[in-house]
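User: Fold both of these, please.

Assistant: Here is the first one.
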Amino acid sequence: MRVNKRMMAVVMLLLTAIMLSACGEVGKNNGTNGGGAKSTSNNSGTSGSENKGKGQEKLYIPLISKGFQHQFWQAVKQGAEKAAEEYDVQITFEGPETESQVDKQIEMLQAALDKKPDALGLAALDSQAAVQLLEKAKAAGIPVIGFDSGVDSDIPIATAATDNKAAAALAADKMAEYIGGEGEIALIVHDQTSRTGVDRRDGFMEQIKEKYPDIQIVDVQYGGGDQLKSTDLAKAVMQAHPDLKGIFGSNEGSAIGVVNAVNELGKIGKVTIIGFDSGKLQTDAIRHGTMAGAVTQDPIGIGYWTVKAAVMAVRGEAVEQSIDTGFHWYDQSNIDAEDIKPLLYE
């Protein structure tokens, strides 16, 4: 019996040793640490560009727009999402509640940079306010793509946008055509800080002054792209200038504000309205004859090219500095034409 007990003890010790050795090999093969928990690499503290190309994560490209309140921005987002799916990258798309919230947009830009993205898209509300943060992006090696509205800096590798001065000049030509080349007109502009606001104002005014000496621009007001504020401003302008023959609204909110003001003052058919952009309220106003016509951009193209240019920049490919996404005039005569319908973000 004593011999059997000793043999059993030896056998048990051998079995225990074998089992412990096998567990150690399994732990090494499965990447377990001493506590038995599986170890994983954490990339949250590194920039996306340090990890991409290793098959670990998608490129991350945040897009900071001017806002969300207009259908235009929803169409830009749609184009960006289309490119993100095509190029298999991750994007975010956000903007402040209104296009007057420059400080809010700067906060969003800072938050986006804090996430250390691979590239960044920005539609600046203020062409100068964002420059300091863009300097940080450049120092961190993060390519910046401007969209819709550029900044007063050479930091953005490219800007995907409408040629706003040329588009506004076309709007001025149409205004002159509708009012017979003479009379008093005014402008309701969305802002005087963004590149789009400045270029559309200047493009319209310069064309009028250079080509139509019998047309007088009697007032320029800035409504922040807000319909209610633009309505009040347009009403005040028409009351101050009873002989006014036309008003140019430089973006969706501005143009609809003018439409509302003309309706409220009973001046339909007496004041020609020329708009910019093509949300549903504008297209309805054109179909009903309240607005003469407008210039439409290609917002889906703007969003698409912003993401595409960002991907190209991250890959080290050459990108055109100025990406002209085009513009078109539309009115009752062509609003349902096959080449125009895709550009209307109704």
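And the second sequence with its predicted structure:
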Amino acid sequence: MPLPSQPLRKLGFLTIGLFDEADPRTGHESTLEIIELGERLGFDSAWLRHRHLQYGISSPVAVLAAASQRTTRIELGTAVIPLGWENPLRLAEDLATVDLLSGGRLNPGVSVGPPMHYDQVKGALYPDTADAEDFGYDRVSRLLDFVRGKPATDFSGVEGFEVFSDRVQPHAAGLGRRLWYGGGSLRSARWAGENAMNFLTSSVVKAEDSEDFAEIQLSHVRAFRAAHPDGDRARVSQGLVVIPTDSATPQQRAKYAAYAEKRTPRTAVPQGPARMMFAPDLVGTSAEIAERLYAHAAFREIDEVAFALPFTFEHADYVQILTDIATVLGPALGWRPAAQG
């Protein structure tokens, strides 16, 4: 069991990037400013969630392209892109392009499954092929192949004045090793390991053999590494909701406590037909949060985190939370901020 003296190696954060429908630019600009702040504070990575037909970032790859030009060091990730909304070949082109623009800092995370509310959206998304679309692991395999440089066509060469490649261009060397799978089940964990991906495990898991969140998450981490060619060295990042209050105002502390209290009932038992388990939000001083993390069985198994920011807070709240994570909680977990270039 790792002790508090064994350091957290990589510290990141995850945000949804909410915006006002009447003024969407301000919300997107706020997200970019938060990423810039994360780099100044020494965070190792910043991750964006993905929302379609909602008031959150629908195109994280585009936002990360902008972030790549406003930062120089911090790694930029997606957690996660639901591939049911994507064409793997086109997505591979976009990811490679942004990775090159960022200087090799992109960490794309993906997941499978049909799009949310598929019956309502399939006519707009796949008007002619809705019943034929495959939303399983094969969709990820196609993306992996394209990103890793396998041929996408049997045609290449010169046609007139144009030169054609048989693989996705541009090709971003190294990006194939920085692809992550966001999984919440044992099957997903094993599949990600078998396909030499990295593994994102969040605050939501499927209750299959247990109803203890930490125990379930630990089983996923171990199943992933058992199946991965790199074994115990295979990369896993944990994404719990963490809200330190060290420098928070009394009003912020009250808001954070009310937010967590409202969400706590769903953590007691599995939710819905899929039996999803939710981790409790960790709210309190950094010392209190560090103690709870070291008591968490899955946290003791990993050395990378991407702490999730709450969905509905204000920009100033995120500044306070990120500052406390970087200056108080991170050091309490043995982490050291990245050197500024």
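The chain has one domain: 10-152+168-332.
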